Amino acid sequence: MGKIRTPNIVSDVHRVEHQPSWRRQGFNVNFIFLSTEYAEKDLISVHEWAQQQGLENPRCISPQTLRWSALFQPRFFEAMRRAAISTESSLCLAYPGSECLLADADSRLSFWMQSVLFLAAVTLSAAVVQDRASEGTIASKYDKLWQAGLLETDVPKLAGTGLCHAVAALAARKEDPKLRRLLDLRDVFDQAVARLATSVSARAVRVRQIDRSDPRMTRFGFVGDLQSGVTGLVAVIVYGSSVLSDHFADYDVVLVVDDAEATLSALSNTSPRWAGKELNVGIYTPRQLWDMQLLSGDNLADYGLCVFGEVELPQKRTPLLLARNLSFGMVRLRQQLGMIGHALAANNSDGDDRRNLYSYFVKIPANIAKGTFGAAGQHWPKEKIWQWLAEHCGFDASGQEQRVAIDGPAGPLAAAATATERTLRRLDEEFRILGPG
């Protein structure tokens, strides 16, 4: 292959050297700043050029991504500003009632860390129950906690948690059984989430089991098995497509229990199913569910269906939910952009764990759209979300996983990253969430 000319869309490249973490070795990231918004083909061409230039860990950053980082990834934004990277005017939250959110640097940094740790912690139950935790997955969780640990002096709620020490200790236990390491890792996340959640205000609402004669109960016949098989079961809440759609691939279920660790241990690697469909189970004590919900981008009481027991849940205000979903979108976008280079080099040679990860990340535009519309009180089934993405963002959400399997992950990831940025911009226009700073 001949030398590839620098793509016209590239305006600047800035290398950042990261010091050794629990991994005991540093690494470099090359941020490639783009002059305009991009399409799938632009991301692929830039990454092909970056490979030829020998640029390690390339990350493409558009003008919108950089500007939005002022609110939703403030450490990155400030680092680029200090490096004299050209930045546009900053932003504020303009949605009615959001005046007190992200009003200063400390609140923006805390909000970002809340989003990062929530997204990393929310998949830990599935990692145990469905055995979805490869060593690479565990390492990525360590990375998030280490990142939080470096900010202990800047985020008052994390002061004294000793997260870096905890991560180093966990990482040193390579010979321990994976289940024990995952449970201990979950406990560290739980402590950090509990600290951060104390800065979020909400009113309490109690959700109770729907009437047993309700025809919807027939869809969730697995509840009886859970009642007899799970010790200390407090409540069962179902949500997602199994509640909102006639056609769905699996069940999303929250189990509220007296002892989360004991329940996780009992269900470890069981991958429960019912009626031929997998149960994606999140397991929490009432206190843990309350804390996680404080940092979530939704109000579970608004769209979840309680099919057993009762539990108290936080009800957060709409401005907070909208801001949180944009924040989640920015975190996921950065992760998508970081995967493209690796996927382009590896193509179809990656193992099942990596391919499953790619398949998850091509769904991000749909997840962001569904979460943001839900935050505004519009709980749409996935088919309506897909239609909205096709009409407003030019993205075929239903066909991306098939593209990963057939064509390899690089193209679908680039398409999904492009769609994620368009989705965030379109949602901001729809709900008028952001304004000039």
Short synopsis of the structure:
The chain has helices at 40-53, 63-72, 74-82, 105-121, 124-129, 135-149, 163-171, 178-197, 223-229, 241-244, 260-267, 286-294, 300-303, 318-346, 352-361, 364-375, 382-393, 400-407, 410-431; strands at 10-18, 27-34, 58-61, 91-93, 203-208, 233-239, 250-257, 273-274, 277-284, 305-315, 434-436. With 437 residues, the chain is an alpha+beta fold. The protein folds into 3 domains: 10-93 and 319-436, no CATH class; 105-197, no CATH class; 203-316, Beta Polymerase, domain 2, CATH 3.30.460.
Explain what this protein looks like in three dimensions.
- The chain is of the alpha+beta class and 437 residues long.
- It folds into three domains: 10-93 and 319-436, no CATH class; 105-197, no CATH class; 203-316, 2-Layer Sandwich (Beta Polymerase, domain 2).
- It has helices at residues 40-53, 63-72, 74-82, 105-121, 124-129, 135-149, 163-171, 178-197, 223-229, 241-244, 260-267, 286-294, 300-303, 318-346, 352-361, 364-375, 382-393, 400-407, 410-431, and strands at residues 10-18, 27-34, 58-61, 91-93, 203-208, 233-239, 250-257, 273-274, 277-284, 305-315, 434-436.
- The strands form three sheets. It has a six-stranded mixed beta sheet. Strands 1-2-3 form a three-stranded mixed beta sheet. Strands 4-11 form a two-stranded antiparallel sheet.
- Helix 6 (135-149) packs parallel to helix 8.
Cα(first) to Cα(last) distance is 46 Å
Low-pLDDT runs: none
Helix vs. strand class: alpha+beta
Residues in helices, as a percent range:
40-55%
